[in-house]
Amino acid sequence: MPYEVEKPDEQWREELSPQEYAVLREAGTERPFVGEYTDTKTTGVYSCRACDAELFRSDTKFESHCGWPSFWDARNSDAVELLEDHSMGTTRTEVRCATCGSHLGHLFKGEGYGTPTDQRYCINSISLRLAPDES
Predict the structure, then answer these.
(1) Which residues are 120's β-sheet partners?
(2) Whole-number pLDDT of residue 135
(3) Is the pTM of this model over 0.70?
């Protein structure tokens, strides 16, 4: 699928740290409870670290105690792309940035968190960049 932001692999490697590249471009996962935004309560907008597309807002972030930032909804339905993921011996829903195709994390449904959507976008901190509200 063509993305609005496409770059050769060499350019991604130059622009991203090795850890960012492993998660964003190779669908890796950062270790739980170590990410920059796991416990952040700052009000603002979370964007893709690779292309700066707006993905999530802090008012949809909630504490799931899973070790990664969790959101109950994306900024809008076009901000993320959902794909079937058959890795790890199970079927999951992968979440990618719809602008550049970078891996963000996974979407889980029906876990009973009591959020308005009963969804948990489990997102790697290293995939995100938070722009705090200026108010």
Answers:
(1) 108
(2) 63
(3) yes
Closest to 48 in 3D by CA, of 91, 9, 90, 96: 96
Judge contact between 128 and 51, C-beta under 8 A: no
Averaged pLDDT, groups of 10, the chain, 135 residues long: 90 97 96 94 96 96 95 89 87 95 96 93 97 85
CA distance 82 to 75: 14
The span from the CA of 46 to the CA of 78, in Å, is 15
Q: Which domains does the chain have, with CATH numbers?
A: 9-132 (2.170.150.20)
Residue 48 appears among annotated catalytic residues: no
H/E stretch holding 22 reads helix 18-24
Q: Which two tokens stand for residue 16?
A: 């991203």
Catalytic residue among 48, 51, 97, 122: 122
